[in-house]
Design a protein that fits this description.
- The protein is built from eleven helices and 25 strands.
- The protein is an alpha+beta fold and 539 residues long.
- The longest helix is centred in the middle third of the chain and has 22 residues.
C-alpha cells in the first residue's frame, strides 16, 4: 500500500501542468481515490468546482461526513520541515459549527503542534504555526468571519514565507501577519491529516463536514499565480459586504445631502427601535443622582447614576465639574469593550486618561459604565439620555456639548453624534472604517445591528454628523481597523463634507501606534469648537 501511494503521487506530479521545482509532500486530487489512508467515511462524489473547471480533468471530490474519526491520515512521518510552505485546497463546507480542519499537523495532546489550517465557527479561516510545539498567540492568523459560506466552492490557501503568514481566498489575499516567534516545529508526533485535526483549540477532533478537492501541501511559499486555479477567475470573497447598499450617500448638493440625512437618520433610529424600544423621560424619568464629591486636580468628581432607558437598570457614571465659574462646555467620554467609567480616567492605558484630560481642561464630563449588548447600537437611547442630563445641568453650556470615545466608545460616539444634533463636535477614535474593512479582520459582531450592513457603508453613518466638526483618530497598526480601509473611509467622509461646504471641519489624525487613544490633535480640535483648554491641561 505504501509503495502504491508513492507511485501514484509520482505519476500525478509528472503529468500535471502544476509541476513545481519541488514535488508537493501531499497532493490529493481525489479522482475516485486517495493517496493517504482513509479513516472513517470519506466518499468520492461527482461534485467539483465550476468556473470553467481545471486545466486537468476533474470529475471527483472527497466528501467528509463530519464524524470524529473521519480523515485522510498521513501518519506522523509526513511533516513540513521548513518555514517556507503552502497549503491549498478547494473547499465546500456543508454547515458551520465549531472549528473544522482543512489540513493540519497539530495536536494539543502534549506539545505536538506544528501547523493547522482550519475553518472558524464564524466562517473565517485560521492558520496557526508553532515554532516549538507550544501555542503562540502571536503566531495565529485569523480572517474575519462569514467569508466562507456553506454550499459554495472556494479555493483557499495558507502560505508561510519566512516568519510571515498569509491567507488567500479565490486567489485574493485576505489576511497577513508577521509571526511573533519564527520557525516551524517539525519534531512533533501528531499525524498530518486532511479533513481533521486530533486536538485543536482546547478540544478535538475537529472534523470537516463537506467537500474537499485538489489538496496540495508544498515546501514552497507559493504566490497566487502558482495556486491551482480554475479556467475562469473565481470572484473575490467579500463575505457579508453587499454588492449594493440600500441607502448610500450619493448627494452632490446640500439640499439632497440634507434630505438624505433626514431619511437615513430616521431609518437608523427605526432599526434601533426594532431591537430596543425607546422610552421617553416622562415614561422613564432620568432620575440623575449624584454622590459625595471627590476633589481632583482642577475639578471635582462625583459618583453618579441614572435610570436606563429600559426602566429596570441604573447606569453608573462619573460626573465632573471644573473649578471656577460656569457654565462650562461638556463632553461625553465613552469607553470601549471591557471598559468602564474608571478606564477612561485612568492613565497610562489604552485610553490615556482622556476623560481626566477634558475634566482638567475646563469641561464638565460625564463618563458612563455601559454593559456589553448583543448590538452596540441599542445603547443609543441611553446615550441620548446622557445628553438630556448634560442639557439639564446649570453647570453646562448646552450650546457647547461634544462626545468622544475609543473603540466601541468610538462607535457609540458615531451613533450619538449622528442621531443627536445637540452634540456640536465629536472625536471617533479607533472605530472609523469602511464596511469591507470592518469585515476584513475578526471583530465583535455587536456592531452588526440588523439592517445596518445592507443599508449603507458604515462610514456613511459618519456623514450624519456633517457639517458639525468631526475628528477621526486612526492608528497605523490598529489590528481591528486596518489603516488602508480607515483611509478609504475617511476619503469618502471627506468628500461628503465637501458637499456640505465643510471640508475644513473634518480631519483624520493618523499616527504610528496600536488600538488606543491619541489626543494630540483631538484636544486642540475640541477646544477650538467648544472653548475649553484641554490642549494645555497636560502641560
Amino acid at each position: 500500500m505504501k509503495c502504491h501511494a508513492c507511485f501514484a503521487l509520482v505519476v500525478v506530479v509528472a503529468i500535471s501542468p502544476w509541476t513545481m521545482a519541488e514535488e508537493p509532500i501531499v497532493f490529493e486530487r481525489f479522482e475516485n481515490s486517495a493517496v493517504g489512508n482513509r479513516q472513517g467515511r470519506v466518499d468520492f462524489v461527482e461534485d467539483v468546482v465550476g468556473w470553467g473547471g481545471l486545466q486537468e480533468p476533474n470529475r471527483w471530490s472527497a466528501a467528509f461526513d463530519g464524524q470524529l474519526d473521519t480523515s485522510i491520515d498521513y501518519g506522523a512521518e509526513k511533516r513540513v520541515k521548513r518555514s517556507g510552505c503552502s497549503v491549498g485546497a478547494f473547499v465546500k463546507v456543508s454547515e458551520r459549527s465549531g472549528y473544522a480542519a482543512i489540513a493540519a499537523d497539530w495536536s494539543e495532546d502534549g506539545e505536538n503542534r506544528s501547523w493547522a489550517f482550519v475553518l472558524t465557527p464564524r466562517g473565517g479561516l485560521r492558520f496557526d504555526v508553532s515554532p516549538d510545539g507550544s501555542f503562540q498567540g502571536g503566531n495565529k492568523l485569523e480572517t474575519a468571519g462569514r467569508l466562507i459560506e456553506p454550499g459554495r466552492w472556494y479555493h483557499v490557501a495558507a502560505v508561510s514565507q519566512g516568519s510571515t503568514s498569509r491567507i488567500f481566498i479565490n486567489g485574493k489575499q485576505v489576511a497577513e501577519r508577521i509571526r511573533a516567534v519564527p520557525g516551524i516545529f517539525s519534531d512533533d508526533q501528531a499525524h498530518l491529516k486532511i479533513g481533521n485535526v486530533d486536538h485543536y483549540a482546547t478540544t478535538g477532533p475537529r472534523p470537516w463536514q463537506g467537500l474537499l478537492d485538489e489538496v496540495r501541501i508544498t515546501l514552497q511559499a507559493l504566490k497566487p499565480a502558482d495556486f491551482i486555479r480554475t479556467q475562469q477567475a473565481m470572484p473575490p470573497s467579500l463575505g457579508p459586504v453587499p454588492e449594493r447598499f440600500v441607502m448610500p450617500f450619493t448627494a452632490t448638493d446640500q439640499k439632497d445631502a440634507i434630505a438624505w440625512q433626514q431619511q437615513a437618520r430616521r431609518r437608523l433610529m427605526q432599526l434601533v427601535e426594532q431591537q430596543q424600544p425607546r422610552n421617553s423621560a416622562k415614561d422613564v424619568p432620568l432620575d440623575f443622582q449624584i454622590g459625595a464629591p471627590q476633589p481632583k486636580e482642577g475639578y471635582t468628581r462625583y459618583p453618579a447614576s441614572f435610570q436606563g432607558n429600559d426602566g429596570k437598570n441604573r447606569i453608573e457614571c462619573w460626573f465632573t465639574v471644573p473649578e471656577g465659574k460656569g457654565p462650562f462646555p461638556a463632553m461625553l467620554a465613552l469607553h470601549g469593550h471591557g471598559g468602564s467609567r474608571d478606564a477612561v480616567f485612568g492613565s497610562p492605558g489604552l485610553y490615556n486618561g482622556f476623560a481626566d484630560r477634558f475634566a482638567r481642561g475646563g469641561y464638565v464630563v460625564i463618563a458612563p459604565s455601559f454593559p456589553h449588548r448583543e448590538y452596540c447600537a441599542t445603547m443609543l437611547w441611553d446615550l441620548l439620555r446622557l445628553v438630556d442630563i448634560l442639557e439639564s445641568r446649570t453647570e453646562v453650556d448646552a450650546d457647547r456639548m461634544g462626545v468622544a470615545g475609543l473603540s466601541m466608545g468610538g462607535e457609540w460616539t458615531m451613533w450619538s453624534a449622528a442621531c443627536d444634533l445637540r452634540l456640536k463636535a465629536a472625536v471617533v477614535s479607533g472605530w472609523m472604517c469602511t464596511t469591507e474593512g470592518v469585515f476584513s479582520v475578526p471583530n465583535c459582531e455587536c456592531w452588526e445591528l440588523p439592517g445596518l450592513v445592507e443599508l449603507m457603508d458604515v462610514c456613511d453613518v459618519e456623514l450624519l454628523i456633517a457639517p458639525r466638526p468631526l475628528l477621526f483618530e486612526s492608528s497605523e497598526y490598529d489590528p481591528c481597523f486596518p489603516i488602508k480601509f480607515t483611509r478609504q473611509g475617511f476619503a469618502r467622509v471627506q468628500a461628503g463634507y465637501r458637499v456640505f461646504d465643510a471640508a475644513d471641519r473634518v480631519a483624520q489624525d493618523v499616527w504610528p501606534a496600536g488600538h488606543q487613544w491619541h489626543g494630540k490633535v483631538a484636544y486642540p480640535f475640541i477646544d477650538k469648537v467648544l472653548g475649553g483648554h484641554a490642549a494645555t491641561a497636560g502641560e
